[in-house]
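INFO  loader      accepted 1 record
INFO  loader      residues=318
INFO  predictor   begin
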Amino acid sequence: MRYLYWTMLTLWLLRPPTFGQIDPHKVLHDALVLENRGSFEVAAKTAKAAIDSRQLSGNELGRAYIILAVASQGAGDLASAQSAFEHALQLLEHDREHPGDYASALENYAGFYSELGQLDAAAPMWRKALHLRQGIGDRTGTALSLTCLAGLALARNRPGEARQYLQKASDEAEASPDLIDEDKAFFFETQGWLSIAEHHAAAAVTAYQHALDLVERSRGEQHWLAGWEHMLLGKAYAESGDFRSALANMQTGLTIIDRGLGQRNPKYLSGELAYSRVLDHFGLHAKAAQMRTAAEKASKDYYGGQCAGCTINIAGFR
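INFO  predictor   done
INFO  writer      dumping tokens
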């Protein structure tokens, strides 16, 4: 899952600081900046420092735990991520004044389970988050929640259901002036995934190219998210039969993700598996087999004892 719900958190962090040995709001702002750059380990340590200051409480503390959870997930510390998500939910579930914060915790926790391939755990969280977003009239949040549910439907091989969710998401997006480039990119990613599911490869290429352009405009060409978009575009080219363009984009994508996240990150490993399939189609069977074996072994080493039964969720590689 992508980190699409930070605008609210950023606005909160701009409030005047409290007094004490450290300014937890500034520290959390630093954690968000690090998280955006892909420096997840440092971001997690920074967010934990704000929490450990004991200067936060209530929904502020819940928001801090969301930041810690997302950073820990990005760093590959699944146990710490899950613990932080649980803390966030406990703090925010009964906070009637800040339902948007609770929705954000649910959405990101659902993304955590989705990336592990545990769709049955993710589904009720995304549905509850959608209900909360609709209840407070959050058109942008509603559009993003609907897009998440469309992705869930596609992961379950239900393209008709996904199309319905995406149409509703499009309607909400048209009524919202607050969508940023990354929100739009997320919608185009899911549209591309649907196009592939419906065997419209040319439409998928167009959708993923739009997503790549938006991410490059907002984050730059060398951000790991841009690398991920190159991987998705490469897969679409492969579906269209243009394997040279597929290989070129996937090579670029893996290089960027490696620089940003490293070769042990699940994003890189799932990218390698997808790339190995394209190599197979291109006739490079030995290289494909070598890459696939290495990625599968690295996946097992990565998850280790953190998550029994978890593997690379290639179904989530849209």
